[in-house]
Amino acid sequence: MICKSLPGCFGIEISKIDLSSSLSNDEITNIKKLFQDFHLIVFKEQNLNDDDQLKFTEYFGELEEFPEADKTKESNKTYHVANVTVEGKHLKEEDDQVIFQKVNQRWHTDSSYRFIPSYASLLYGIEVLPDEARGGETEFVNMFKVYENLEDDLKTKLESLHMVHYYEYGRRMFPNLPPVSAFERENIPPVSHPIIRLHPDRNNKRSLFFTANAGNEIGGMKQEEGASLHSHLVDIVENSSFQYKHRWEKGDLVMWDNRCLLHRAIPYDMNKYRRVFRRTTVAGSTAIKGPFLNPENIRN
After folding, report:
1. Is the confidence at residue 27, as pLDDT, over 60?
2. pTM of this prediction?
3. CA distances from 43 to 118, 163, 230, 248 (A)
4. Do the strands 191-194 and 253-257 form a parallel or antiparallel pair, or are they unpaired?
């Protein structure tokens, strides 16, 4: 196993390891430590089928299940992220499944609309864009660093605030999408999470936690006021220098920590190019902890 740091303030690339084979306890322990330290790992030159990816993902915890049956492949724990059907047909940009991919072109963390959001996502590149194509990358931002560099007045303002996250928000961005099903509405209701997230596994270190694709409402604020604050936070992330942009190569498996990173897909010509990924997601274990859950915590 060979490791090298990625550009920016987080992330590591690992090569010369075969994730389709059985890994030793020492190898898994080492990968877990690297993940905790670097938040994002790019595993190069992998050859993984569904079962291989599921098996590797399970080293890190229980897997999330996806309720959206039309976007799963073989297993409800595997998410088909593509502008291509599972049968191999290239879909046009106006197709509902492709529009769903556009929702992910805004900064977000996976499964923020759940009461217990996810821990980690693992995205595997099956078909990627050719070198000459523009766009198609996945961009990440370090929300520990974003929070640390906020102005003190804004930190104070955010101290007690929550954002409302809801699965249905994508329909506001793209009204032509079909409405959520009764099953989805019942099983994925809106939730509220602290905008400042404490990390118990890091001595309650703080990060900024919000998304741009699952809502823009701030609890306790009038809608326009909350939307304005939300827009300001999006601008801060957008202009942050604490970013890493990953240009995909076939066989890349990228694993990232949803607790402290936001990510987004960079737009590309969806009608011209095929793009096929497979995602598995490690479920979170507890609800998000905010500053006022334990008032005695000292700001880090």
Report:
1. yes
2. 0.93
3. 20, 33, 34, 11
4. unpaired
Q: pLDDT digits over 56-70, tens only?
A: 999 999 999 876 545
CA distance 228 to 211: 14
Cβ atoms within 10 Å, residue 248 = 19
Identify the sign of the CA torsion 43, 47, 52, 53. Answer: positive
Cβ neighbours of residue 123 closer than 8 Å, sequence gap 6 or more: 81, 138, 253, 254, 255, 277, 278, 279
Is the CATH number 3.40.640.10 carried by domain 2-293?
no
- Give the tens place of pLDDT for each residue, 203-227: 999 999 999 999 999 998 999 999 9
Nearest-angstrom CA–CA distance, 67 and 289: 26
Above 90 in pLDDT, residue 170? no
Beta strands at 162-165 and 138-142: parallel, antiparallel or unpaired? unpaired
Tell whether the model's pLDDT for residue 142 goes beyond 90.
yes
Distance of alpha carbon 94 from alpha carbon 163, whole angstroms: 30
Which has the closest alpha carbon to 92: 270, 268, 265, 266? Answer: 270
Q: Strand 138-142 to strand 243-246: parallel, antiparallel, or no bridges (unpaired)?
A: antiparallel
